[in-house]
Amino acid sequence: MRELSAAAARRTAVAAQGFGRARSGAVSGRRAVAGVVRSTKLLQIDSVSAAVRAHYAPVFSRVGPYDRQALDDAAWTDTARSPRLLVEYWAHEAAFLPVADWPLMRWRMDQYEHGRWGGAARVAARSPGLVEDVLDAIRDQGPVTARDLEVLLDRRRPGPKGPWWDHSDVKVVCEQLFAGGVLSVPRRERFTRLYDLAERVLPADVVSRRVGEVDAVRQLVEKSAEAMGVATAADLRDHYRLSAAQTTRAVADLVDAGVLVPVTVTGWRDQAFLHRDTRVPLSVESAALLCPFDPLIFGRPRTERLFGFHYRIEIYTPEPKRTYGYYVFPFLLHDELVARVDIRVDRAAGVLTVPGAFTEPSVDARGRRGEVAAALAASVTEMARWLDVADVVVGDRGDLAADLGREVRAVSR
């Protein structure tokens, strides 16, 4: 059986995710977005906008400054000249995935016919006609928010709304129908979903295509293998949130077909697999800030195994108890995670702030502090330009803050 060193596994994983390719400076257009999604297979969606919303960041990390409107167009524009490329669904959490992959989630839609949570059953019990009322209103009105539906159906709730999970009955039904594949999301406004019939959002051949669960899961596992480069069975199932039972059968089938090649990785306890088309590069040249939901690192156990990098998002940790900060971007240099920076963007003031900057232990051990600080300064200032803010201000938290501040000032001269 083939054996990979830990370093080779890192390079393989990083390259599979689209890093190490030539960055062509300012990039615009749907082609850049489509190219990234071919590598990552999906883009996770998250509501936090401390710096930039999560689905925009992975494209920037891989191709450099690009027009974010290109991603909006890929997901929310559908014309004869520019057909929709991406669609929202529950893949690795809420995510954009290629329109062509939507039928591979049909088995999940069947599972979610009555909603992802028990709330839908409770709503059905107390409002048995609400599903049809919502569907009738959407048929008549076209794309609409849950809040607008509440007005149309005279189902408004008095008083202040609670946190994001405090859904009205109408919102619960909309989410049930979205999870069940009856509704889809043609666009968002101020990050709020608009709902419409799936048949009006997606091409007829996509909506009508049925893929059995076994075949669909096998295809999803192969896509996971392509996206990850080298992965354990647990890694492969996490990319699309599959079950162990589903993944076990799919992996066995793909190994028998020669699509997955079993390998061992030095230091890994579990069996690993390479896709037969995966390349193992001798080096990877990259310098990239990774948002917390980047597909390279959203699997935290895999991130620790690959990079020796323990990472937990601290958004919900009280500020005095945070180790690194509110919204921390790991920094990828070549094939290693060498630092992490807390980043906030104040668009009104035109400032990108870095309250804290921290190196990983290997940086000092190998005398790389200067290299890391310079590369990170270039990436942070590039992000500021991409987000249309004029200044970068580095705070004083973290062992890398002083060095980073000096390098940022040098870059800005």
TrEMBL record:
- Quote the Pfam families the UniProt record gives: AlkZ-like
Can you name this protein?
Answer: Uncharacterized protein YcaQ
Q: Which top-level group of life is the source organism from? A: Bacteria
**Which organism is this protein's natural source?**
Rhodococcoides corynebacterioides
